# Entry
Amino acid sequence: MQHLEHDIHGILKKYWGYQSFRPLQEEIIHSVLKGQDTLGLMPTGGGKSITFQVPGLCFDSGLTLVVTPLVSLMKDQVDNLKRHRIKAACLHYGMTAKENRVAWEMIVNGKARFLYVSPEKLQNERFLMELRNLKLNLITVDEAHCISQWGYDFRPAYLNIKKLRKIKPDIPILALTATATPQVVEDIMNQLDFRQREVFVKSFTRENISYIVRKSDTKIQDVLHILMRTNGSAIVYARSRKRTKEIAEYLESTGISATFYHAGLEKQIKTERQNEWKNNNVRVMVATNAFGMGIDKPDVRVVIHFDIPPSLEEYYQEAGRVGRDGNNTFAVLLVSKSDQSLLYRRVTEAFPKRNIVKETYERICNNLHISIGEGYDTVREFDINRFCNLFGLQEKQCRSSLRLLGQAGYMNFLEDLDKGSRLKILCEREELYDIRFDSATTEQVLASALRLYTGLFSDYAYISETQIARALNISESSVYQAMLTLDKMKIADYIPRSGLPLIYMPTAREETSSLILSKSIYEDRKEAMEHRVDSIIDYAFNNKSCRVKRMLRYFGEEMHQDCGKCDVCREKKKNSQHNSSGSKNITEILNFLKAHPEGVRFITLEANCGGNNAEIAQNLAYLCNEGFVKCKQNLYFLNN
# Structure
């Protein structure tokens, strides 16, 4: 194995063009190549994918299996590998039977070096049996915090990863995550049955970021105020889709170029807006948390949170998308008086009463025509908006019930599915020359698709009817009809876009009365969420100590000095400078209190320490805020 380790720099240079690794990447790669189970904690933008892609290419044959929860990110990574001339495939429940078959042919014939799977695939026993016959070199668990019930995004399907250990007991496991508390780190290793406990942690400190919390009763005006006083690219995060549009339109009306992004937009629109922002044609991206995963734009100068996130983990990841080029940047969190009660209300909304969860399960099964004892390992499209309107349900409550049902193992709601239109050419390239088309439009559409998209003869590719229509100056409807004609002629397999999420049934439908939402699923998870909410509230509303220090302590990292850049540190520095002229007066106050441990009144301090009433009051307020002095029953004491 040693000769492989010496080749990692050559692989990095050959495929990615980099001369050297980022911090921690090389250490993790060496650990993996030694066959050791390894956990890597690398903050957002730290280059996690390199830590399994480089060792995966060190072997002459075989697969690196990658388990990741986000289908959209999975597809992006596969496409990115292909751009680097690295063969990869993915399997998830948003794919058709034909797409699955094509992917499996690549895998079985050794034409793929990386296989990305969704965690739900590991609930399928047939899939696990097929894995036994494959040569695996490495098992990678991305977003590994999802396997911990103490993590902020627990995914019960992740618990099935442990089955891979039984199937391939000698294959090392690499677990990766950007954020995890010490409790979650320990739980990840326990859940994955780590044989060795090799943990590599990159400091969570980002010295170039100034973390600012600003109290605001007029948040949208404060967003404008911040953007007008900063330069460069920016992200504004909001919690609702509707709000992203409202903020973007407001910024546009003031002359600041902005666009919005959320999970409900069509794939083509997402791609266009993302590219506009990445290419600096649009300055501000206003988005929900659906935006940012896999985005590596180094020159983002400011990230503003319009709404307070539900955990420090999420805030740290989203704020961490600023300043990856190392230049000084700002992460600003806007808070209002109502935010605390709003966060606690979210906890209540996230855990509907058990009977409501059971009723939701029953209604969904009935709506999808799934009888008791049926439905095992089936996937069905599920229009959640139509379902809620039909039964008069609140969508938030329905989503929360689905999340709990998923964590209990009864049904999975799969919304993160990149289901844009897909196309694969079924015949050989030479055969196309002999085909006679009844319609010139059909022939033009096929020719345009071949020009615009690569790899159509070997795999399914995502296409845009809009893009083809623009290229040919025809209507999208004409493109759609031409694609259907190509499909009927067996020239291509055309899969039109579907915007609906899916319901996956990992078990057959059960009697509603027999559903069990255990303490670990309900009470323990609720308690963990309350703890996370308490932590983000402390970060946002406690103005007495360095914010970065408190955030790092939450992640198990101690910082011995204040950051000097957050708003709390800046205020302390300002007060210190302001009071430097009165330092003699402050020393006299402290010495006087030291000589009078029984406590003294303000009038006594004023008479004995010099200065006027306003100076004494200002200096006393400063000493009390800093913890040097305490006041009890109108008496001032030295705080020992």
